[in-house]
């Protein structure tokens, strides 16, 4: 009987630990649904409101990426963004990150229209930094894959501006 109960107990432990391992794996994989391919190692916030809250709390700028699944320009930018180590590293450590497939009610996030891809920065003081723009005068906040160095500069600028202005 002793042997039997030990056997049953160890089987139970195996079952529990494999369920636990699966739960832990699931836990680890959760952010990837929010990443939507922009970077699975990045912690993404779910909503604009949550992003503003986290930015204020952490004193980090919020980076908002507007995109759509069926937009080829978004897909191309996403690939370049996800593959760039410097961007990924800054996004993980220095920014509150949000990618959205819908518009927010905050009109400040679409100062020159609701196009995609569009990347904007919001200061921890909750000011939308309309002054941090890309290279194109007709779509101020859009970036193309070849603009990645420019986006990196703008990320650094967003970080620099909080240190000097707050």
From TrEMBL:
Keywords: Signal. CDD domains: AGR (cd02960). The keyword Signal applies. It comes from the Eukaryota. GO terms for cellular component: endoplasmic reticulum. Belongs to the AGR family. This is AGR3 protein. It comes from Nyctibius bracteatus (Rufous potoo). The lineage of its organism: Eukaryota, Metazoa, Chordata, Craniata, Vertebrata. The gene is Agr3.
